[in-house]
Write a structure and sequence with these properties.
With 170 residues, the chain is of the alpha/beta class. Helix content is 29%, strand content 16%. It has one domain: Rossmann fold (3-Layer(aba) Sandwich). Bound molecules: flavin mononucleotide. The site of flavin mononucleotide has 20 residues, from helix 1.
Length: 170
């Protein structure tokens, strides 16, 4: 739907919309952001996809529980390094897991040089706010130029456009 695309980026600013999504919700929001900004979509894919059992938060032994209980866990990426040098703005989207960004987001950040870029977090959740996850990311990576993040649960396209206009100053 190219004709509906509203390109809010200015000519000199290249945008990447990187996202991790285990069950598709964040992926849909990422596609909408890419449509609006004209940015490039990039899936932060795990080397080993998460199964339903992996995602069981009632099971303390499930993969996601074990990873989220270990601050040092860094699940491997499917593609270890992607060339992101040409981008000025990098959106990073993820589902909230245990009130945090999934550890694979840390893997992605630590595998790429994001210094000097504007980094914009966004998330979907079952109800939790994004703020704790963003403050933990800022604490872990204080050298990066973080913009305020936004929870984008069931956000309509015009609200999405308003947020993007505001945050990218276009
Ligand atoms: C392991 C796990 C932990 C979760 N923890 C939270 C949480 O702390 N707060 C919350 O509101 N939702 C939580 N959720 C729900 C997801 O954030 C929500 O379903 C999200 O939209 C899924 O996005 P996705 O389809 O892109 O993976 C959790 C989901 C999983 C699988």
């Amino acid at each position: 739907q190219k004709k509906d695309k509203q390109n809010v980026s200015n000519a000199s600013s290249k945008m990447l919309v990187a996202y991790f999504s285990a069950t598709g919700t964040t992926a849909q929001v990422a596609r909408n952001i890419a449509d609006i900004t004209g940015g490039e979509l990039f899936e932060i894919a795990p080397q080993h996809p998460y199964t339903e059992a992996d995602l069981d938060w009632n099971d303390r032994q499930s993969r996601s529980s074990v990873e989220m209980n270990d601050v040092k866990s860094r699940p491997a990426l499917k593609v270890t390094k992607t060339d992101i040098a040409g981008y000025d703005v990098v959106f990073i989207g993820y589902p909230i897991w245990w009130n945090l960004a999934p550890r694979i987001i840390n893997t992605f950040i630590e595998s790429h040089d994001l210094r000097g870029k504007t980094v914009i977090p966004f998330a979907t959740s079952g109800g939790s706010d994004i703020s704790n996850s963003v403050s933990e990311l800022k604490k872990a990576y204080p050298d990066l130029n973080w913009k305020e993040g936004k929870l984008l649960n069931k956000v309509g396209n015009s609200a999405l456009q308003n947020w993007i206009h505001g945050i990218t100053n276009h």
